[in-house]
Specification:
Blueprint: H1 35-38, E1 40-43, E2 50-53, E3 59-60, E4 66-75, E5 84-90, E6 95-102, E7 108-110, E8 116-118, E9 123-135, E10 141-150, E11 158-165, E12 171-179, E13 184-194, E14 208-216, E15 221-228, E16 231-238, E17 241-250, E18 260-267, H2 274-278, E19 288-291, E20 294-303
Parallel strand pairs: 1-9
Antiparallel strand pairs: 1-2, 2-3, 4-5, 4-13, 5-6, 6-9, 7-8, 9-10, 10-11, 11-12, 12-13, 14-15, 14-20, 15-16, 16-17, 17-18, 19-20
Length: 304
């Protein structure tokens, strides 16, 4: 499909369905830093060569996006639990969108047979921004996530943690996080796993990563969308109200055996331009996508 910089804002069918770090200044968000600035760099124990790491601090010789799912959360010294569906999509330039919605179906509104949507009180937390990581000479890896948009606060901060790879390939994140409700730093642990970067069936989505961003400095409105392969999710915060979307490519359905894009999370009154970029193989960096009352900029495009 050819790239259309200003298609109509997409409509979809609604169904139900993350290291000790040195203190760093928040990244300037008005321009897109190079891979060498935002890519996760790791020093080898000897020889001085460098590699990169993914969202979970795992070393890689390539700069790839990632799809990270959380398996559990533990507020130290409590017990591990996972009351949410938490997914983080991260681009090669380290833009990320992190959406965490409660699994409790009693908090989901039934809007009729044509569509279903999560209520705003089903959002446990959602935020977006940039991340960076470093591995020291002893092999310890640490990451920091700079929140640019945060559903819980209009004064976003950052969280940081040590990323410890487990025997099965999962990654245990241990660190401190600012609790926006108390203003206090808290110890936490999270267990993460990365999904394979597969494109789906031959007729499914391309191996494409796209990042969109929108901002109005005067009103404080900000939004970001990240698409990685078969996943796409975004957040928009305007006048204190948050809108979210998460899309997934689903195969094997009776009415669409070759696969289709489904909305698995949708919150808020404002529509996001996820649908606009899902079927486009080669978007153009720097172009605009118009969705509703907003014009979103394509700030990153990559393939693998």
């Amino acid at each position: 499909m050819a790239w259309d910089p200003s298609p109509p804002c997409g409509k979809g069918r609604y169904v139900m369905g993350r290291m000790a770090v040195a203190e760093v200044e928040p990244l300037e968000f008005l321009s897109v830093p190079s891979h060498h600035t935002l890519a996760t760099l790791a020093r080898a124990p000897s020889g001085g060569s460098t590699t990169s790491t993914n969202h979970l601090g795992q070393q890689s010789m390539t700069n790839l996006p990632s799809i990270s799912l959380r398996k559990h959360y533990r507020k130290v010294p409590g017990q591990p639990e996972e009351p949410t569906s938490t997914t983080v999509l991260t681009s090669p330039n380290r833009f990320f969108v992190d959406i965490r919605v409660l699994k409790d179906l009693s908090s989901i509104a039934d809007l009729g047979s044509a569509s279903q949507s999560y209520l705003s009180n089903s959002v446990q937390w959602a935020f977006a921004g940039t991340s960076e990581s470093v591995c020291d000479s002893n092999g310890k890896c640490f990451s920091t996530w700079h929140h640019w948009i945060d559903s819980k606060t209009d004064d976003p901060a950052h969280d940081r943690g040590e990323m410890i790879t487990q025997d099965d390939g999962d990654v245990l994140e241990k660190g401190t996080m600012l609790n926006p409700e108390t203003g206090m730093e808290e110890l936490y642990e999270e267990l993460w796993t990365d999904l394979p970067l597969t494109p789906g069936s031959s007729s499914g989505p391309a191996r494409t990563c796209v990042v969109l961003r929108v901002e109005d400095v005067e009103t404080g409105m900000r939004g970001m969308v990240v698409r990685v392969g078969r996943w796409c999710q975004g957040i928009l915060k305007k006048d204190g109200a948050v809108s979210l979307e998460r899309w997934q490519w689903v195969e094997g359905k009776e009415n669409s055996p070759d696969g289709q894009w489904d909305v698995t999370v949708r919150v808020g009154a404002d529509e996001l331009p996820c649908r606009n970029i899902l079927d486009v193989e080669k978007p153009v960096e720097g172009t605009k996508i118009h969705c509703g009352a907003f014009s979103w900029e394509v700030v990153e495009v990559s393939t693998w």
